[in-house]
Structures are given as structure tokens and as C-alpha cells.
Amino acid sequence: MTVILTNDDGIDAPGIRAMQQAIARIHPIPSVLVAPKDHQSGCSHQTSTHRPITVEQRNETEFAVDGTPVDCTRLGVRYLQPDATLVLSGINAGGNLGSDIYISGTVAAVREATLLRVPGIAVSHYIKRGRPIDWDRATDLTVQVLEQLLSQPIPEGTFWNVNLPHVESDDPDPQMIYCSACTQPLPTDFHIEQNQYRYTGDYAQRRRDPGADVDVCFSGNIAITQLRLW
User: Fold this and answer.
1) Measured in Å, how far apart are the chain's first and last C-alpha atoms?
2) Helix/strand/coil (H/E/C) assignment for every residue in 110-137
3) Alpha carbon distances (Å) from 158 to 99, 124, 197, 212
4) Could you give the CA distance from residue 72 to residue 108 in angstroms, rounded to a whole number?
5) CB-based contact 226:179 (threshold 8 Å)
6) What is the mean pLDDT of the segment spanning 178-185?
7) Cis (ω within 30 of 0) for the bond into 53?
């Protein structure tokens, strides 16, 4: 197994280091980081096709890309690590649940890998009421998830989208629940002042389909969703 790690929070984000530690516990061969040099959250499936993309090689296994998460996947799979057999994206600081998957650069990186016929798993961490993330705990939970998901084949045309709940360090381990993606929209509330509309939607108050990923994660469990492209 040859693994590419990427994200949309940037190569220096703590989440990708947590992912690096998680996969290292399962797979002793060093993974290759191909991640944006800057924060790219919310860029969806954006690509850079009208300008050169600069790649800074930091060491033998780390590449900082002046581009989007999808750029990172493309360059990683095609040029920087062409023998890759798995793309992992995350751990994202913030949930990517339901309709978030159409906005998320974290998810887009794995969606692009799937289009390139490389299996992928995206992992995100819901943030509850602005509390800090315990990255050590997130690493432990991600190890459990990866051990389970990598023990089974990922059918062509599909990928896994995983969302960790916000648990405290001394809370019991949450359950892993396979579920569908929520179909409800994100809140669409804005504060209007003259001709300016400022978004005021409360993510935590979004509508939920019972038993779908938003409901599972907000209820304190790990939401595991298989997304299908074809």
C-alpha cells in the first residue's frame, strides 16, 4: 500500500499530522504528503488550469503545492507518487456532513482520486461550540476507522467520507455507524444591512434527516458514509 496524504487546511495544519500518525500505526512505510501550502477550505472541486502550479519539495516525502486539494491529488497520483494505491484526505478541522460534501476541498481531493481510479477516504472532525480539537484523541479514533475501512475493498467509483464527533478526552469511544448522507440544506440565514448580506447561519442548528450522517455525528458517533460517483 502506497499512501498519499492531502487536505484543504494546508500542509502545516495539525489535522494532516494527526492523519500521518494514524496511518503510520497501521502501515509502517512512510506516506507521502502532497498538500496545499496555504489554507484552501471550502474550495470544493476547484482546479488550477490557467497558471503554473509551484511545488515545493520540503523533504523526501513532503510536497507543498501552490494549488487546491484537487491539484494536489492530480499531481500526487500522476507525477509525485504515481504508484499510489490510496489517497487519504484530512483530518479536516470541521465537519463535512451532508451538503458540505459539495463545498469541501477535503472531500473533493478524494473524489478526484476516485475519478483517477485510486481508492480514497476523507476524514473530518466536527467542532462543537468552538471547543478545541484533541488531536491525540482524533488520531486514536482515526486509527480505529482506518483499520476497519481498509480491511474491506473500496468498490470502484466509490469512496468513504468519515466524520468524527467532538468528544472530550475522557469520554468513551464513540460508535462507528454506517449511514447515508443527509439531504437537508445548510442554514441560509443572512443579516441584511443596506445592500450587504452577511451570513449568520448556525451550523449546529442545521436540519437533519434521522439516521443520516449529520444526525449520527451530532449525536456523538462516528458517521461513515459511502459516496458513489458511478
Assistant:
1) 24
2) HHHHHHCCCCEEEEEECCCCCCCCCHHH
3) 17, 18, 37, 18
4) 11
5) no
6) 98
7) no
Calculate the alpha carbon distances from 45 to 48, 62, 67, 219 in Å: 10, 22, 12, 29
pLDDT band at 170 (very low <50, low <70, confident <90, very high): confident
pLDDT at 161 over 80: yes
The better pLDDT of the pair 170, 142 is held by 142
Beta bridge partners of 57: 63
Q: Which residue has the cell 474491506?
A: 152
- Is 141's pLDDT higher than 80? yes
Yes or no: say if 59 and 33 are a contact pair by the CB < 8 Å rule: no
What single-letter amino acid sits at 10? G
The pTM of this model reads 0.96
